[in-house]
């Protein structure tokens, strides 16, 4: 069992960037590039969970970011990259404090983070005021790139709206007349539920009911007992991690007739534990197994070599965050303060991502394909496209 | 809501209550006999779940996991008592609260160091991996029925130990009047260590039984900790039988409240009433404390 | 029993040290980087919470595990009055926050003070958990993820100070100095209170309640009064927190918040009022150091708490030379619970 505690990752990161920097120095023969490489390194703060429930996600995002920086020779836009890592423990109550440590105490030039939406809210408060370039590498709460959008905040992961809307839409297109949605009663769950309803109704279906339980309760039995009496054709669900494992297993054990589906997090990183209970479940997500574009094939191999485990959608988020940063820095020639060039380049970025081609919307969220996947042979096999180049509506955002 | 669904919720409430009982019984004995407030009891539950996970991973058999949990629990309880809690009997409750709070943090970090932070699933033994149909559209997992059975068996064993053995009698006496132990010339230290060991073993067993149901993940003991204290208060300190009935009561109130609460307060959990299911057990506890501090089912005040 | 309250400095040297500390705090922003100004602000807010709890624990001997709920309730009150985009002035939010916290303390106190010792601990915990459930399980306060609020406007007598209008390095100063003034006022108010007859009665209750009853005091009313005052002061601290952070979430009313407040008192020592302040600062410093040393933050915290409880029987304020004999029944502190 791999033991990826934080110090190991830190050493690896330093080693990688040091080697990369040394390689860049020795490999370049052009004097001007040599001169630029001598300049101050760019401090990239990584505020991610390295302990607690989401530690694995934090680690994967980190590996992927380091991978891309190494692929670029350790420098982006001519600047050597220095990582400053901070374990946010997925705790919203100390999120602001942690963000201020990175922004004010450590003076990072860029902040990449985080997984938990509540923590992201704390980060957002700090960076909106400080103006630090921020790339959201996972948290999906809609408002970050809607009513709370800011010109220095970009997101390369998803909004809760994107996969859930696509799932509802796909269901309706398949002929499902009525559906219900089950989730935790917190911001992510509420946003997913609302988006699912929107997509379903857009496709002509009828939304029966939103069933919720308190976060992070896993006592699903009362809800599962209510489902048969609803008489719906399908049930959508949003849970992640351990909650997803358990829900899928209990759903199967309850032998409910209506098929289970939902945003891809239901079966992401959980298939090994869910076993046969997950077979045949269809989900919608911006990534999946079997995507055979060359970038993905190369990425999967490189990630496995680096991290010693399979890449997942979270790793892709991190990888693309690094790609976006690279594009911006290259356009600005490494000058992080040149906001005009930096932001313009990032807003106009067209990135070749392992998940397919992506770009950035006016509200500075990622525009991407949402794939339909089916669980087959222990994998989330991509079987179709639920929505192509889907952009989040960005309602309430005053940018662009 | 149909009868069958109601029945299945009763079963759920019983199953949850019985697991609560295993945890609360240890807690009530520890407080009743030793006067120690052990906030780390939830962590013991977590440790039990992780032990089960590791045993299943190594040997593939859940049947081995339960005895392993009991053995580890006995050892861990004895060690904690001998090297830590022994020094805190005369200390104020404030100190005990904080020391056991520190233990929670330490256990979490040790777990993180040793096993990592992943969510892990513990597979139900193949022999039990089926469902018992209760109604045309709804089935109940066989393993849950087994959990109910095992908990009842453990409860019966505990009762037998307390009511019928000499050590059990001493513990009962000590729970009612701790001073009597010294007066009667019995080695108090052995009593204390036994109580702690048994209490810890029960908590670990509960974790091991629950592991296939809830999966294994960081901070999994948090939710149960406070509810266990509620059970102890409602049941009366030092009273194992009190803890039994109180645990069932709390389990049923909590489960039925969550199952039917939404029917009363509206489907979308929005209004203030959404908090009622979570609040209900606390309201019961406060009523008990204010009206009948010695507990609903006996025990000393 | 009557006489100088030992919670306050006993000598003029003690008062001088206190004054020196206050001056140091007043001058800090001029020398320290912006990050540390913010950090010390959080320490002062924590100190205000710890002081309010100290009135209960050190003053009246009531160990409550639900005190954080009043702190958080005040912050949520500010959120409800002053949500994002619609700020209210501070002269409205502060009294409102303190009032709500005080009312809640009145209700909780009336209920919980019927019990003593461990039962009191459990009832206060349960009440705190119920308040937590209200904010965690409903949409009232933005649910489990929390919500932004608009920081109350710093306006008085028609004059408004907007921190964003200051140069970046000085933006944290207005909140810092408001916190400092509030902290000083809280300390002085408590000091006065403890010196008065009220304080003496509380101490009498802590030492031997039945004796006070026999002397004719209505101990229940005194305890309730102390509980409400402590609640109001915790509310003031919670208001300060919302002013500093602009963000609320349910953990701020959770039991861990209450446990941390108890820990601060332990670190500082129950014997002295200023111990609450010292303990709060020590707690914040400990967290900061732990964060810098290692990724295993919680482990360091846990071990430090263990060490503190085992070694610092009277907190930092009561560090005695190790060769002083200790009495078998719990050292320098008298048992707060019977």
Report on the structure:
The complex is a heterotrimer of chains A (400), B (301) and C (338). Helices cover 41% and strands 22% of the residues of chain A. Chain A has helices spanning 6-27, 31-37, 55-71, 95-105, 117-130, 161-174, 187-202, 221-226, 242-253, 271-274, 294-307, 313-331, 339-347, and strands at 42-48, 75-76, 79-87, 110-113, 133-136, 153-155, 178-184, 206-213, 234-238, 260-263, 282-285, 350-353, 356-360, 366-376, 379-390. In chain A, the strands form two sheets. In chain A, strands 7, 8, 9, 10, 11, 12, 13, 14 and 15 form a nine-stranded mixed beta sheet that branches. Chain A has a six-stranded mixed beta sheet with strand order 2-3-1-4-5-6, with helices on both faces. In chain B, strands 1-2 form a two-stranded antiparallel sheet. In chain B, strand 1 (131-135) and strand 2 (138-141) form a beta hairpin. Chain B is globular, with a radius of gyration of 19 Å. Chain C has a domain at 32-155 and 171-252. Chain C contains twelve helices and four strands; from the N terminus they run αααααβββααααβααα. Chain C has a two-stranded antiparallel sheet with strand order 1-4. A two-stranded antiparallel ribbon of chain C has the order 2-3. The longest helix of chain C has 27 residues, at 34-60. Chains B and C meet through helix 4, helix 9 and helix 11 of B and helix 5, helix 10 and helix 12 of C.
